[in-house]
Design the sequence.
């Protein structure tokens, strides 16, 4: 099923990917009532990380911002896997972003803007959300960024 949200994704020159398979004991997304909670999404492209390392060292903030946008796109795929249709999104409630940071890197909010801005471009006002951007020492598979999303669905 493809609706207005997926049409907007296509207008932006993007493709909604397949859900990234779990790399451990969890589900990519779960639904509880009107809410969908995604697991942390890495910036996987065709099953692989395009780059690894710490932001502010091996990865530039600009590269990391693009990777955070990819995480958000992967999160939308996870939402669709349990909601059935992205047009059911009433609003994005919260985004939590983790940035594997070099010791002196403090630009985590700018990196996670990649996810926030993409959600806004795709969903408009429904993409406005609360957010946390956290610097961490290391992420799974040495990914530079990881993003989780919580959305509220239009009631059945």
Sequence:
């Amino acid at each position: 099923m493809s609706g207005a949200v997926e049409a907007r994704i296509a207008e932006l020159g993007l493709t909604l990917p397949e859900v990234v398979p779990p790399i451990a004991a969890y589900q990519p997304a779960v639904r509880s009532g009107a809410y969908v909670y995604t697991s942390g999404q890495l910036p996987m492209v065709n099953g692989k990380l395009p780059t690894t390392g710490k932001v502010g060292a091996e990865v530039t903030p600009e590269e990391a911002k693009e990777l955070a946008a990819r995480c958000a796109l992967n999160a939308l795929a996870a939402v669709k896997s349990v909601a059935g249709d992205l047009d059911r999104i009433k609003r994005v409630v919260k985004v939590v972003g983790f940035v594997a940071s070099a010791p002196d890197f403090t630009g985590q909010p700018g990196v996670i803007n990649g996810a926030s801005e993409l959600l806004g471009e795709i969903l408009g006002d429904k993409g406005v959300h609360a957010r946390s951007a956290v610097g961490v020492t290391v992420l799974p598979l040495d990914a530079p960024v990881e993003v989780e999303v919580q959305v509220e669905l239009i009631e059945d």
Q: What stands out?
A: The domain at 4-153 is CATH 3.30.1330.40 (60s Ribosomal Protein L30; Chain: A;).
